[in-house]
Amino acid sequence: MASMNATKARKEFFDLIKNAISKHQVFHIHHRQGDVVLLSEEEYESLQETLELLSIPGFRESIAKSVKQMEKGETISFDEVFGKEK
């Protein structure tokens, strides 16, 4: 995460927006009244979705269990689950 003061951010504002959108960069901007973070809407929505998923009771445990099953080779194929395509 790049950090800068508000004066520099103001001078580079359009470039910051372009880089946040196209390069998924996040910027930490310091101001005497407080700090802000500039990120793309896509990054913001992704963070919101992650927080929502992590708030589901048992979600983390379920993911951890699935990872262990994959590591042990305890998986089944797509065809076994959904049947062969015709």
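That was protein one. Protein two is written in the same sequence-then-structure order:
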Amino acid sequence: MRILAALGLLLAGAVTGVATVALHELGWGLVLALAATGAAVAALPPGWWSRLAFVAGWDLVVGWLAFPRPEGDYLVSQDLPGYTVLGAALLLIVVGVATLPRPRREAS
């Protein structure tokens, strides 16, 4: 069941990442996309199967879309909105990893 939830959250993160890249050039679109992403990350419980799966899907798609296309154009521009999206990707992966639960120690 956890694997199914992780795959669903990975897909949800990827779809949210595509929406973020699609709307990041519009002022209201960037704010809305980052607010929705932040709300989703805050609402998900910390863990490998939940928050980190969503963040990984978001970061993988945004990272993939940030590379130049074969035609030579970019989907994530080199301006303030583009750097904001890339900064948010870095911040999200840090939050996703930093909020992982600590491993439990075995009683001696």
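The mean pLDDT is 91. Keep this in mind for the problem set.
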